[in-house]
Amino acid sequence: MKTLLRPAVSLFVLLTVVTGIVYPLTVTGIAKFAFPNATEGSLIVKDGKAVGSRLIGQNFTDPKYFWGRPSATGPMPYNASGSGGSNQGPLSPALSDAVKGRIEALKAADPDNKLPIPADLVNASASGLDPHISPEAAAYQVARVASLRHLPPADLKVLVSQHTEGRQWGVLGEPRVNVLQLNIALDALR
Questions:
Q1: The 3-state secondary structure of the chain, one letter per residue
Q2: Of the candidates 3, 17, 110, 127, which lies 20 to 30 Å from 75 by C-alpha distance?
Q3: pLDDT tens digits, the chain, 190 residues: what are they?
């Protein structure tokens, strides 16, 4: 029995050290060296304090700010521990009611806006955490934000343009605007 037990325990200890300590520390060290910002959560720091992440949306409801995509996480919007879509199909009455409510909220916040409402302002993303909106969704909100902040709309259009990120590597995805970064820059306009 001892002849079988000793090699088994030795192998168990060796593999525990290699796979439980050496490998994770090596991978973490390489990641921290190669991708330092991402390994720290891609945090956005303002005045020495972390205010959010570039990768997770935040719930802006004040009409003086640009609003992001609706979040399907519940019960709290943009809850990273509850990431996931609503799984409601295009014929779902619940989805239809949610979209109608979002359209009504956008119209109530800016009743004079006659532009077509971009889809990403009324439909949640698959993860429910998307921090980006399309440049069209940001442009849709310029008049409301400019009016409430008493700023020229042209200044906000420039700000949106400055915060529009292009396609990744020039070919992947669509142009997008990070809502948190845009709203931080908006607060800095004062």
A1: CHHHHHHHHHHHHHHHHHHHHHHHHHHHHHHHHHCHHHHCCCEEEECCEEEEECCECCCCCCCCCCCCCCCCCCCCCCCHHHCCCCCCCCCCHHHHHHHHHHHHHHHHHCCCCCCCCCHHHCCCCCCCCCCEECHHHHHHHHHHHHHHHCCCHHHHHHHHHHCEECCECCCECCCEEEHHHHHHHHHHCC
A2: 110
A3: 778 888 899 999 999 999 999 999 999 999 888 888 777 778 888 888 888 888 888 889 899 999 999 988 877 888 877 777 777 788 888 888 989 999 999 999 999 999 999 999 999 888 878 899 999 999 999 999 999 999 999 999 999 999 999 998 888 989 999 999 999 999 988 6
